[in-house]
Write a structure and sequence with these properties.
Blueprint: H1 2-23, E1 27-37, E2 42-53, E3 58-64, H2 67-71, E4 73-80, E5 89-92, E6 99-108, E7 113-123, E8 126-128, E9 132-133, E10 140-146, E11 155-163, E12 169-172, E13 187-190, E14 193-202, H3 206-212, E15 215-221, E16 227-239, E17 244-255, E18 259-260, H4 266-274, E19 286-290, E20 295-301, E21 304-305, E22 309-312, E23 327-331, E24 342-352, E25 357-360, E26 365-371, E27 380-389, E28 395-400, E29 407-413, E30 422-432, E31 439-445, H5 448-473
Length: about 475
């Protein structure tokens, strides 16, 4: 990782020059304020651009992200400051530095101003330092980023604020060779907040990037487990005969905090629990928000059923209504999950089908909504697969994902009492966070013959069994009659 940071200025010199020249001087940034909220698996970054138009009729503003920053950004959204409606955003994937084109709500006249906010969530952006920690030692993480926020347009003043949840900051980088851009000081600290800048008259030419751009890092204490879901396999099965939607998740959970130094001591762990001084990097339990009206919830791992769980259900809510409360499933793993440890488990539950499925009588189509995932607070899902198993005989299947998926495909799932199998839609995703807890919508038709196929198959099977028994009783297999 260190080698990548040292070569970044040279990469930016060759990569940013042609794209920035294309951007021209249509805008000027009167101020840029970047706020970084440090966490464990997730880091939130909010960058505010105070923009002034230098040419008339400007409708598109460009934002530049470095290749390294874009690679660890799992979610991004641009909007006007003070508004909640996101702006249309397109990305130039052919450019090395990832130029984002933001469509402004209206054209700006000369000297017209607007404040834009780019919200991003970064994953896998922190790492434990040191890499090992004893059972009683605190958890320390390190985060790296660039000192300056690069833009295709000149910037009059900019600053970066890095905030930690805890005021215990071990160390932070002091910039060098920036005296010509500062007036009061290059970096200050106030509690758990590190402020770099303000820096004045930041240009966009290649000389500035090569000469002054530099990495900065913050070494801080984090008092919560750093959790990652390595793999999530969700299967949602729709049953019209049972009027039920069954969802099952197979999860491989990983604690990405510092690995355990030495051996695990159960006595020390129980002593910490007794004195209520549990180590911050150990996962003891967690809670999941499930849909209202869930029933038949179960939780088991590779050794069998785990009884250390508790479900608090909320009343069922009709489809289209807003749920005011959730069902809460409290889970306690079979063992404490320390840094570097894994825990694989399976959870499942049923919900009433009428809460998730609607019927359009005009075209005879059913529309079902299935959540992409059940979020574990503060985690990132590295690899996710969502399978939606439709009723047998479903035809004219159409689907839409709430955000772009890596891939989607149709297949056939065969279960008990099936004849031809059930149509299945499979989606794959990467680096999912709490912002990705959207709904996948699937529409399909089920002919009357398909509804009756299972009944006729079961009836035919029973009729054949009774017919065989009826005939078998009347067959005389004796060699000699009495």
């Amino acid at each position: 990782m260190a080698r990548r940071w040292r070569t970044l200025p040279l990469l930016l010199v060759t990569a940013l020059a042609p794209s920035f020249s294309l951007a021209g001087l249509a805008f000027e940034n009167t101020a840029i304020v970047r706020t970084i909220e440090l966490g464990g698996s997730l880091v939130h970054v909010s960058t505010t651009y105070a923009v002034k138009a230098l040419e008339p009729g400007q409708t598109t503003y460009q934002i530049a992200l470095s290749k390294v920053e874009r690679a660890k950004t799992s979610w991004l959204e641009a909007k006007v400051k003070g508004r909640t409606t996101p702006l249309e955003l397109s990305e130039d994937e052919s450019s090395t530095e990832h130029l984002l084109s933001v469509s402004l709500p209206k054209a700006l006249a000369v000297n017209g101003t607007i404040n834009l906010v780019l919200e991003t969530v970064q994953t896998h952006a922190t790492y434990p330092f040191p890499e090992q920690a004893a059972q009683k030692e605190p958890q320390l993480l390190k985060y790296k980023t660039d000192l300056f926020t690069i833009s295709p347009y000149p910037t009059l003043v900019q600053r970066t604020k890095i905030k930690s949840l805890a005021p215990n900051i071990i160390s932070y980088t002091t910039p060098h060779d920036v005296d010509s851009f500062v007036r009061d000081g290059s970096v200050t600290r106030s509690g758990g907040t590190i402020t770099y800048g303000p820096y004045h008259d930041i240009q966009t030419d290649t000389y500035f990037v090569a000469q002054y751009q530099q990495p900065i890092s913050v070494h801080y204490s984090f008092d919560h487990p750093v959790l990652e879901v390595k793999t999530l396999r969700r299967i949602a099965e729709i049953s019209h005969w049972g009027s039920n939607l069954n969802i099952e998740d197979k999860i491989h959970l990983h604690n990405a905090g510092p690995t355990l130094k030495g051996h695990f001591s159960r006595l020390e762990y129980q002593s910490q629990n007794y004195h209520r001084k549990q180590a911050s990097h150990i996962l003891h339990d967690f809670a999941l928000h499930l849909p209202p009206g869930v029933t038949n919830a179960y939780f088991f791992d590779q050794n069998g059923n785990v009884s250390t769980s508790h479900l608090r259900t909320a009343p069922s809510v009709a489809k289209g209504s807003k749920a005011m409360q959730y069902s809460v499933l409290e889970l306690r793993p079979r063992y404490p999950v320390l840094g570097g440890w894994n825990y694989s488990y399976t959870i499942g539950f049923d919900t009433p089908l009428q809460d998730s499925v609607g019927y359009d009588a005009k075209n005879g189509k059913y529309v079902v909504g299935v959540p992409v995932m059940t979020n574990i607070p503060g985690t990132v899902v590295n690899d996710a697969e969502v399978k939606i198993v439709l009723p047998e005989g479903a035809i004219n299947v159409e689907f839409v994902s709430p955000f772009p998926e890596l891939s989607s495909k149709m297949s056939t799932h065969i279960s008990y009492l099936d004849t031809a199998g059930r149509p299945t839609v499979t989606f794959t995703y990467q680096d999912l966070i709490y912002k990705h807890t959207g709904i996948i919508y699937v529409s399909y038709q089920v002919p009357l013959s398909a509804h009756l196929k299972k009944v006729m198959s079961v009836g035919a099977a029973f009729f054949s069994l009774f017919a065989f028994a009826f005939i078998a009783r009347r067959v005389d297999l004796n060699l000699h009659k009495k």
